[in-house]
Design a protein that fits this description.
It is a single chain. With 129 residues, the protein is mainly α. It has a domain of 42 residues. It is built from seven helices and no strands. α4 packs across α6. It is elongated and about 55 Å long.
Length: 129
């Protein structure tokens, strides 16, 4: 797909071409637009609502207000409830908390992996009865 074809397809998809896409280098947009269209607008293995919620979590971790706004609103468009988005915020915070604990402790990675394996084996045996 050429740059011009990409611009035409973006306009057909959105009704206009956002400025940030117009300003994307002409050799990059034709490569990135098909990926954006498939993974942010189209069908993939992961249902759209959950894909957007995952991207919202990543945006929050990156502290990107543009991505946070986009993915929160699009999550809602795909049916995410306020309760789900509030729980997502808590899950993102919980993940960041434990990541910071492990990094601050400089916890041995191999020990962590072995402990995780043991916990998983125990939980699998004891929660599927």
């Amino acid at each position: 797909m050429s740059y011009e074809d990409s611009i035409k397809d973006i306009k057909k998809t959105f009704g206009s071409v956002p400025g940030f896409m117009k300003e994307t280098p002409k050799d990059i947009l034709p490569q990135m637009w098909p990926l954006f269209k498939k993974y942010q607008l189209g069908e993939s293995i992961i249902p759209q609502k959950y894909r957007e919620m995952m991207m919202l979590a990543a945006a929050a971790a990156m502290k990107c207000p543009y991505c946070q706004t986009y993915h929160k609103e699009v999550s809602k468009m795909w049916g995410a409830s306020n309760d789900e988005l509030n729980e997502l915020a808590a899950v993102v915070a919980l993940t960041a908390f434990w990541s910071n604990v492990l990094h601050t402790q400089n916890y041995d990675y191999d020990t962590f992996v072995n402990e995780l394996k043991q916990m998983g084996e125990y939980m699998t045996k004891n929660t599927n009865k």
